[in-house]
Fold this protein.
Amino acid sequence: MNPAIALAITGASGSLYALRLLEELVRAERPVYLMISQAAQVVLQMELGLDIPARPEAAEHWFSQRYQAAHNQIQVFGRQQWTAPPASGSNPPQAMVVAPCTTGTLASIANGISNDLIGRAADVALKERRKLILLVRETPFSEIHLENMLRLSRMGAIIMPANPGFYHRPQSVADLVDFMVARMLDHLGIEHQLTARWGSQA
């Protein structure tokens, strides 16, 4: 079985990044541990018109149906579900992605504040030296944000602001989203065909 990826969706703008990444992880047959903050549910409704069920079991069914995932491929965990696999170093996922990542979540992770499952799972990823990708979505950055990003980068986290490139001549919002999702997949070591690579086209 392929190793699991933990995906946390927080309340920053850019929820489409998370859903597109989830779609690609399912396509790659990777098990996904999915965590969704309360603010993220609000943003998903505002940006995409999606009403995600609040109960983890119902949300799991919703996501599994939407992405035609295999049985138990997507597992959704509650915000205080401390028995979830990503909450312990004895059973951590191969990697964790927070996309999009609010600066509040960034600050909590940088300071080891594990008062919900997302913070705890990120703390586990850092202490177990697993890959942690933070798709930070904010502009401009304050000194506090920059210091937290530097602190986490020094701990080994990958800081990836949601800054898509334009050299591939995007024609749609979907093209811009795919650019960032491709970069996350690259760092996760998952093959994809989302964008052309630099130098591969004249």
